[in-house]
Model the fold of this input.
Amino acid sequence: MSATLRSRQPRLNLHLFLAAGLGLLLLALIAKIDGPAFWPIAVMLMISPLTEEIVFRAGIQETLQRLWRAPHMANLATALLFGTAHASVKGPAMALAILLPALLVGECYRRGLGLKVCVLLHAAMNAMWIFGFRDWVLALSVLV
Done:
C-alpha cells in the first residue's frame, strides 16, 4: 500500500472509542429519563449517529478494510451488521429499510470523506425518517 493512500485513510484512535463509550453511557442515562418527545429525537439526531458511526465505521468497517483489503466487502459486511443490530431492536423489516442507507454511508467512509460526513449523513437520514420522509430516504439510497 502506498504511503499516500495510507495517510488518507482515517485513523482509529482512543479518542473515538472514549467518545463512543461516553455517548453510549449518555444514551443509557437518557433512556431512563421519562421526558417529553425531545429526548427520543435528540437521541436519534445526535447521540445515535455519533455512537453508531464510531462503532460501525471507525471500528468495524475500518478494521475489516484493513484485515480483508477488500473495501467493498468490508462495507457490505458492516452494513449487514448494522441492519442486524437494528433488526434485533425494531424487527427484520427495519433491517431491510436500513441496509441501503447503511451502504451509502459506508461508501462515503470508504471513499475517505471522513467520520464527520458519515455522522452528518446519518443524522440527516434519521431526521428525514423522523419527520415523515421515509420514502425519500429509501429513494435517495436507491439513486446513489
Remarks:
- The CA atoms of residues 60 and 69 lie 13 Å apart.
- The chain has one domain: 11-143.
- Helices lie at 3-8, 14-32, 38-68, 71-90, 92-110, 115-130, 134-143.
- The first helix runs from residue 3 to 8.
